[in-house]
Amino acid sequence: PPRRSLGELRAVAPGVITAMHERRAGSSRFVVAIDGHIAATVSAELIGELGLRVGRRVDETEAARLSQAAARLEVFDKAVELLSVRARSVRDLTARLRRAGAGDDAIAGAVERLRGLGFLDDEAFARQLARSRVLSGGVSKRRIGVELQKRGIARDVADTAISETLADVDLDEDGAARAAALKRLRALTALDPATRRRRLYAFLARRGYAPDVITRVLREVIGDRAMAESTDDFGEDGD
Fold first, then answer.
1. Per-residue pLDDT tens for 97-147?
2. Could you tell me which of 223, 147, 211, 213 has the C-alpha nearest to residue 185?
3. I need a labelling partner for 228 at 20 to 30 A (CA). Which of 60, 81, 172, 218 fits?
4. Any idea which architecture 15-117 has in CATH?
5. Which of 10, 70, 71, 81 shows the shortest CA–CA distance to 41?
6. Which helix (H) or strand (E) holds 130?
7. Coil vs helix vs strand at 102
């Protein structure tokens, strides 16, 4: 049979509830069987709201409610599972759920609920990612900003997160670039000097360091004379 999409509606037929049990102990998720067949997995909250119990008849309106609630709950639970693995931005989470086949309405409902619970917060995510990248070293604040914006973080939120992080850890960007260059240099010792300089320049540029930072760092790492020669190689004026 074809694979079901996440949150795909399953028709629930009216009938009599013949069994109802918790899916896992303490999960607050209940499997409801109607006329001897598993009909839906729903929350304890919905069980109480509808007054469901074994022996009670479920009418057509309630059956439709069970179907919709089960689909939305499946999307919400998947979102919680994804967030338990690692923090995500709203855009990250939305894209992941959409790839699994969840509909926009169900995703919007899950996102709204997770925000209300404090489990999904772009500002907190931005601070966490910025701090992680800064402490890992070798990445510029400009590169961190680009990564945050690719994750769907608003420019002002990203800028604030980076500024707060840099103030908190007192980052010396030249020092970070220097450490990255020295580490990379060990893998380039077999190359001729001109190629080594070009590779180092490109390496730091890919990590988002500005040309003036790269120039200062390479002067320290490979010397003024070598940098003067490398300027000709790059076709730049060193600014």
1. 999 999 999 999 999 999 999 999 999 999 999 988 877 766 788 889 999
2. 223
3. 172
4. Orthogonal Bundle (1.10)
5. 70
6. helix 122-136
7. coil
Closest CA to 155 of 145, 167, 141: 145
Answer left, alpha or beta for residue 118, where phi above 0 means left and psi between -120 and 50 means alpha. left
Gap between the Cα atoms of 88 and 145, Å rounded:
16
Residues 179-227: tens digit of each pLDDT: 888 888 888 888 888 888 888 889 888 877 888 888 888 888 887 545 5
Query: Taking the domains of the chain in order of start, what are their residue ranges?
Result: 15-117, 122-169, 173-234
Comparing 50-54, 172-176, 196-200, 206-210, the range with the smallest average pLDDT is 172-176
- Kindly report the average pLDDT of the chain as a whole number: 87
The Cα 76–Cα 93 span in angstroms is 11
Burial class (CB in 10 A: 0-12, 13-18, 19+), 112: exposed
Helix, strand, coil distribution of the chain in percent, nearest 5: 60, 10, 30
CB half-sphere exposure, 127, CA atoms < 13 A: 10
Other C-beta atoms within 10 Å of 181: how many? 23
Q: What SS3 class is residue 31?
A: strand
Tokens linked to 237: 């004026």
